[in-house]
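ugh finaly. both done.
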Amino acid sequence: MFDTVVVATDGSESVERAVEVGIDLAARFGADVHALSVVDASEVDASPEQLREELRTALETHAEGALSSVRDEAGPGITTAVREGRPAPEIVAYAREQDADLIVTGTRGRHGENRLLLGSVAERVVRTSPIPVLTVRQLPDAEGEETAAGSSQATT
């Protein structure tokens, strides 16, 4: 059913469960896992010109760290990639290039606190992708804060 699964990550805690679910789903189907992190070009472009290269480097380092965490969880057979651009179109384009059968993403990323149900990136991926998208939300912990631990409920 699934041969290639693309897991989108920005390294935030709110995406941890999506990574876990994506890797687990791929393992169950014997699918290849591709982890993708996108450096948001709009963040770089919005910064003062004299800071852009430093910010780009910092964001790329953060993206590599996010992918390293996924690699640690998934094992050596995973393919990873860092792209720069607008996150939603880059995620969809990458998934199309890989002929993916599924995109897995969290419902909220680094900037997700200001969105009620779906973060803007997840929403755009769902709306624009010709490939099925599985969105995975964090679960509330005992104090009511969202956490990666818990049952494996996912929203689509």
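ok and the 2nd:
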Amino acid sequence: MTTTRVTRFVAAPPEAVYAAILDPEAVQHWMVPDGMTSEVHRFDAREGGEFEISLTHDNPAILGKTEGATDSFAGHFAELVPGSSVVQVVQFETDDPALAGPMTIRYLLHERDGGTEVEGVHENLPPGVAPAENELGWRISLGKLAALLEADPW
């Protein structure tokens, strides 16, 4: 299985970044690549708490990983360290073996120069997901996280 790793500086303190990673309303705005919309179905932000999110392509002709133009995934929060890290275990809701299986997603927060370096690590990427596309999605989402926090400090 493949691992991707992306970093992004956010001009906000680690505590604010941590809060935005665990806020379902914020997640709906930043954890979505361009050309898609997000819907948070459930989101229990505590260790062991479960979540379910769907991302739907704005263009219905683009096929998603789950059904139609939608990528749905669910998981749980495996570890939460305030101001430092969030670890999630997630998997796509699909019957396609090329997209199946648990993935571990880590948000590692490092205080740097008056802000936070966010390191996103995506482990066990299934073979049906191109690493370059995964990295692009991460870069877009972390850019939106930075824009959200830098425009409206938490």
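summary for the 2nd one i guess: The CA atoms of residues 2 and 24 lie 27 Å apart.
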